[in-house]
Amino acid sequence: QLQLVESGGGLVQPGGSLRLSCAASGFTLDYYAVGWFRQAPGKEREGISYSSSSGGSTNYADSVKGRFAISRDNAKNTVYLQMNRLKPEDTAVYYCAAGDWNALDVASYDYWGQGTQVTVSS
Questions:
Q1: Which of 73, 92, 90, 96 has the alpha carbon at shortest distance from 22?
Q2: CA–CA gap between residue 49 and residue 47 (Å, rounded)
Q3: Using CA atoms, how far apart are residues 109 and 103, in angstroms rounded to an integer?
Q4: CB–CB of 8/116 below 8 Å?
Q5: What are φ and ψ of residue 74, in 5° steps?
Q6: Cβ pair 7, 116 in contact under 8 A
Q7: N- to C-terminal Cα separation, the chain
Q8: Alpha-carbon radius of gyration of the chain
Q9: What are phi and psi for residue 87, nearest 5 degrees?
Q10: CA-to-CA distance for 78 and 64, rounded, in angstroms?
């Protein structure tokens, strides 16, 4: 069974940091681009970062550029999202997804995790 599981979410104060993990089981992430997405209440799901299958190409949405960093450890079949200098507007459910294309749009990804909540509040 192909599965992606996110972890590492939680409550953090503004300016703080979190590291999200996306662990794959049932398939090898080496062959896939992996994207991170988020969805705030009442808003559409937005792509915030992706990593190519090799990790050699990454991209970020303007809203997180310079604060978030995506990385992958193919030996552990896991992709990470380091989030620094968090803001209240970063509050959302965060999802990882795997697909064949390096992209920030939802339609480019075939496999999705269940999401992890990130809340930035004092």
A1: 96
A2: 6
A3: 8
A4: yes
A5: -65, -25
A6: yes
A7: 39
A8: 13
A9: -120, 160
A10: 21
CA-based nearest residue to 6, from 27, 28, 35: 35
What token pair was written down for 100?
Answer: 């064949």
| Phi, psi (deg, nearest 5) at residue 25 | -140, 150
| Partners of 24 in beta bridges | 4
Categorize the per-residue pLDDT at 115 as very low, low, confident or very high, splitting at 50, 70 and 90: very high
In contact, 23 and 77? CB cutoff 8 Å: yes
* Cα dihedral across residues 111, 48, 38, 10: positive or negative: positive
Pairing of strands 116-120, 10-12: parallel
**pLDDT tens-digit map of 31-55:** 999 999 999 999 999 999 999 998 8
Find out whether 82 and 67 touch, Cβ atoms under 8 Å: no
